[in-house]
């Protein structure tokens, strides 16, 4: 029962478990490279951006991010109902594969175009929701974060702890944004080009 529950609730992230020679490039390498560029730019700026507050980066991003989960969910719904016989035919070799839980056992399954796009859009829905939720928490908790910063900076190793926390948040957010960006671009490429090839 627990196995099935975990399977169901984490299925939105299954896009990252698709097996194909090219998938690692889209799920690991390109997002990591983009995240490193983003972090490098932030660190190299002569004046550090204001992250929190009404005019901060996170508040500006929240406006964009709050629209994305609905947009991606609409894309998921559209993909699920697309017509056309090619949508339900297995994709050409090298096949995309994923394990599907059937009666308590994981079975390797070759994906159709519809299944692949469904996994892609469901991943985008989950990641955009997580980012949106994180931005809301950061923006709503600005006073608590400011108090925590003041308390830490008054301790012996507080400056180092605060720098480590700040770097961890920046790295996590950068990786999530990078993954969202690369997966979105991958989905656009697939919908506009790859899907229409034999």
Task: Tell me what you see in this structure.
This protein has 198 residues and is mostly helical. It has 7 helices and 2 strands, in the order H-H-H-H-E-E-H-H-H. The chain has helices at residues 2-9, 23-44, 57-65, 68-81, 113-140, 142-153, 158-192; strands spanning 97-102, 105-110. Strand 1 and strand 2 form a beta hairpin. Helix 2 packs across helix 7, helix 3 packs antiparallel against helix 5 and helix 5 runs antiparallel to helix 7. The longest helix has 35 residues, at 158-192. The chain is elongated and about 65 Å long. It starts with a helix and ends in a 6-residue tail after the last helix.
What is the topology?
Blueprint lengths: L1 H8 L13 H22 L12 H9 L2 H14 L15 E6 L2 E6 L2 H28 L1 H12 L4 H35 L6
Antiparallel strand pairs: 1-2
Helix pairs in contact: 2-7, 3-5, 4-5, 5-7, 6-7
List its traits.
7 helices; 6% strand; 198 residues; mainly alpha; elongated
Fraction of residues in helix: 55-70%
Number of strands: 2
Main-sheet strand order equals: 1-2
Structural class: mainly alpha
- Using the CA coordinates, give the radius of gyration: 20 Å
Largest sheet: 2 strands, antiparallel
How do the SSEs run, as a string of H and E? HHHHEEHHH
The tally of helices reads 7
Low-confidence stretches: none
Name the shape in a single word: elongated
Distance between the termini: 41 Å
